[in-house]
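Quick review question:
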């Protein structure tokens, strides 16, 4: 960790601005805010170490975080990215457990956390909140199933194109020549996200760079031709890499 994660409480947290909570009644939002904490992380700070006890769930207000798994010999693989509006750690509502991965900030980030047992008590008084939690858990299950299907049925170039498009929608910044994915992502990270090898990612990005679909440099990807990338993501007949 580069620095201490700053944590504070505030009853004025604007939980209604999170898409997941925007339709909750004001009384429920107020009760949630009374038990919530805000966390400020600098880029490189670690929110949770692998093996830490998870007691709260988190909602990302701003910034970007990545979920990383480390092996016993120190190798790492990036598994998931979290950005504004994302909610994670929902299993804390059913009880504390050891978090199997590390969560670290890629950018300066602000998160809101609510203790899982506090949410559990609120659910007993608020069917609206119970439905929100069910919807969030269902969405996580569907996302996991979709990822398994993609790995089984879609070629690496399609998976990579789809992932980069998703990143451009969530973290993209328009530039004079395209869309900059405003995240420090390495080819190793990208290989982990789409479940392939670094060598395959390198070949894929090199080909797309030659075709002027995107431009890559150290931890920087800029999409130059979004329609071409979308065509790769949506067709089975594109040249294999």
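Suggested answer, residue by residue:
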């Amino acid at each position: 960790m580069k620095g201490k994660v700053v944590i504070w409480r505030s009853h004025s947290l604007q939980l209604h601005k999170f898409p997941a909570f925007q339709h909750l009644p004001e009384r429920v939002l107020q009760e949630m805010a009374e038990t919530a904490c805000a966390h400020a992380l600098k880029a490189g700070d670690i929110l949770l170490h692998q093996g830490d006890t998870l007691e709260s769930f988190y909602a990302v207000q701003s910034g970007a975080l990545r979920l990383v798994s480390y092996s016993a010999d120190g190798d790492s693989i990036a598994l998931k990215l979290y950005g504004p509006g994302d909610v994670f750690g929902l299993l804390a509502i059913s009880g504390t457990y050891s978090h199997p991965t590390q969560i670290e900030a890629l950018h300066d980030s602000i998160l809101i956390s609510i203790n899982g047992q506090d949410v559990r008590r609120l659910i007993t008084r608020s069917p609206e909140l119970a439905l929100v939690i069910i919807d969030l858990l269902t969405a996580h299950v569907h996302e996991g199933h979709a990822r398994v299907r993609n790995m089984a049925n879609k070629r690496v170039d399609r998976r990579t194109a789809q992932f980069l498009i998703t990143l451009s929608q969530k973290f993209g910044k328009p530039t004079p020549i395209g869309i900059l994915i405003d995240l420090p992502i390495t080819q190793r990270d990208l290989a982990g996200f789409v479940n392939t090898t670094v060598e395959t990612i390198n070949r894929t990005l090199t080909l797309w760079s030659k075709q002027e679909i995107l431009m890559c440099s150290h931890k920087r990807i800029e999409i130059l031709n979004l329609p071409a990338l979308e065509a790769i993501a949506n067709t089975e007949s594109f040249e294999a890499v």
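Why it works: Residues 6-150 form a domain with the Jelly Rolls fold (CATH 2.60.120.10). The longest strand covers residues 56-62.
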